[in-house]
Specification:
Blueprint: E1 2-10, E2 13-21, E3 30-39, E4 56-58, E5 62-70, E6 82-86, E7 94-98, E8 103-104, H1 111-114, H2 118-131, E9 139-143, H3 148-159, E10 163-168, H4 171-178, E11 184-187, H5 194-200, E12 206-211, H6 218-223, E13 225-233, H7 247-252, E14 256-259, H8 267-272, H9 274-280, H10 282-286, E15 294-299, H11 303-311, E16 318-322
Parallel strand pairs: 9-10, 9-12, 10-11, 12-13, 13-14, 15-16
Antiparallel strand pairs: 1-2, 1-4, 3-5, 3-7, 3-16, 5-6, 6-8
Helix pairs in contact: 2-3
Length: 325
């Protein structure tokens, strides 16, 4: 038996329940991990987001651990190897992972930091590289740069040679992010940042915009875009799901708008981007050009407190659950 957490929705609130469950057995194409650490993700704790009312499911969607068993057809990994990746039920002593999602943990990376990599940095790679086509010297604007995805976008963009503008309502968080390479900090939560973006870029605008906030800043993000700019929508923590769209700007400035989500992708589609991530960004993580920013590590029994810390919005970077030493 193993200790694990389930997540559900009761009376409009996401709740966590800890219980004992049998250790799962790996099927074809899977590995069984003894989990060392797992990352928390805001989307999992939003009612109606990744979990519907009345439903329950294993909690946790990314982590790092040691391979202790392999399923039929698995030849690329062996027991004893340390891997990180997206997986269901990561808040548990043992979890199954699709071998296509498993990434080697660099020797230089502690397991608590490795647990902060998979979901966030794979999303960022999708946004910045696969869809965003961010090039050296480009301007990236991140609305909500102090979020987990925002910080990872900043770090990846700097490793790719881009210049970064970031908005946040916290001047203190912006000061801390300047140490990670943030070029232009904009202290605001309001949709009022386009003039500052244009000044900072010499009226060029942002070549790529990452919107982690939602509809309340969508129109301002469009106003901040360069000719042939791209706009990635990756979240809506403001719960604002509709926004003004300037059709004339979209048309005349040849803009590209795209979404970044794994919610409707099947396992094959999710796994398809992993090799490119391993080639494009994993070397920067291995050699220390990118060091995942972890705000705080909680012990396994403290998952409810870790969830509360995330909901307080006081953190900068990722929150991690330590499962085993």
């Amino acid at each position: 038996m193993m200790k694990t957490y389930e997540i559900g929705v009761q009376e409009g609130q996401v709740v966590l329940v800890r219980h004992d469950a049998p250790v799962p057995e790996p099927g074809a194409g899977q590995v069984l991990l003894k989990m060392r650490a797992a990352g928390l993700n805001r989307g999992e704790f939003i009612p109606g987001g990744l979990i519907k009312a009345g439903a329950t499911k294993p909690a946790g969607i990314e982590g790092a651990g040691e391979v202790v068993a392999t399923g039929p057809g698995v030849t690329a990994l062996a027991t004893g190897q340390h891997v990180m990746g997206r997986c269901t039920g990561a808040f548990a002593e043992y979890a199954l992972m699709d071998v296509r999602e498993a990434l080697p943990v660099p020797d230089t990376l502690p397991m608590e930091l490795a647990a902060a990599v998979p979901l966030t940095f794979l999303v960022v790679h999708d946004m910045l590289v696969l869809q965003g086509r961010l090039a050296p010297g480009d301007w990236l604007l991140v609305a909500g740069v102090s979020s987990g995805v925002g910080v990872a976008s900043l770090q990846a963009a700097k490793a790719l040679g881009a210049r970064v503008i970031g908005t946040s309502g916290s001047p203190d968080k912006l000061r801390r992010l300047q140490a990670l390479g943030l070029d232009v900090p904009l202290a605001t939560r309001e949709p009022d940042f386009a003039p500052a973006v244009m000044r900072a870029t010499g009226d060029h605008g942002a070549d790529l915009v990452v919107n982690t906030v939602g509809g309340s800043v969508f129109a301002e993000c469009v106003r901040s875009m360069a000719f042939e700019g791209r706009l990635a929508t990756v979240g809506y923590v403001d719960r604002t799901l509709k926004a003004e769209l300037d059709i004339q700007a979209l048309h005349a400035r040849r803009l590209t708008l795209f979404g970044v989500s794994n919610k409707l992708r099947n396992a094959d589609q999710r796994a398809a981007g992993v090799p490119a991530f391993a080639a494009d960004l994993l070397p920067a993580i291995a050699d220390g050009r990118i060091v995942p920013l972890v705000d705080r590590v909680f012990d396994f029994d403290e998952l409810p407190a870790a969830k509360a810390h995330m909901e307080s919005n006081l953190h900068l970077g990722k929150i991690v659950l330590r499962i085993a030493g």
